Amino acid sequence: MFNDGAFEWGTNRDTKADTVVELEHGKPLIFGKNRDKGIRLNGMQLEVVELAKGIQEDDLLFHDEKMQEPSLAYLLSRMRYPEFPEPIGVFRAVDRPRYEERLNQQIEEARAKRPGNLEALFNSGDTWDVA
User: Fold this and answer.
1) Which residue of 3, 4, 15, 38 pairs with 60 in a disulfide if CB–CB is 3.0 to 4.6 A?
2) Cβ(31)–Cβ(88) under 8 Å?
3) How far apart are CA 18 and CA 66, in angstroms?
């Protein structure tokens, strides 16, 4: 393997619980073998905290994958081992129109503003014969 062992910290069953945090919509960011660590938002900075040292589950960051504003997903994407656990899961799932839906909508709006007639265009007199 080209990168054999490169991600051992995140795939090893003995260490994975302490090095990876699973993102679940509506749930706090808790990790650790004993589920005693969490991620808290302090201003605009993420920090790792230990539970039961004056910090409760409600003090932690709750993941919201449906948030329209992308800042939280960006902050989570910047978490890297060893300073933080690596986040895995759905970072952001915003329901928005697909490209082709918006394109078809724009075409229909343009047609409604300026209905065209191809036959009239061909017979408009601004044509020439190519010999």
Assistant:
1) 38
2) no
3) 26
Cβ pair 9, 81 in contact under 8 A: yes
Q: Is 30 exposed, middle or buried (0-12, 13-18, 19+ CB in 10 A)?
A: middle
Smallest CA-to-CA distance from 24 within 68, 73, 96, 88 is with: 88
Beta carbons of 31 and 97 less than 8 angstroms apart: no
- 10-20: pLDDT as tens digits: 788 888 899 99
Mean pLDDT of the chain: 89
Domain definitions of the chain by residue range: 8-89
The residues, ordered by sequence, that sit 6+ positions from 36 with a Cβ below 8 Å of its Cβ are 50, 51, 52
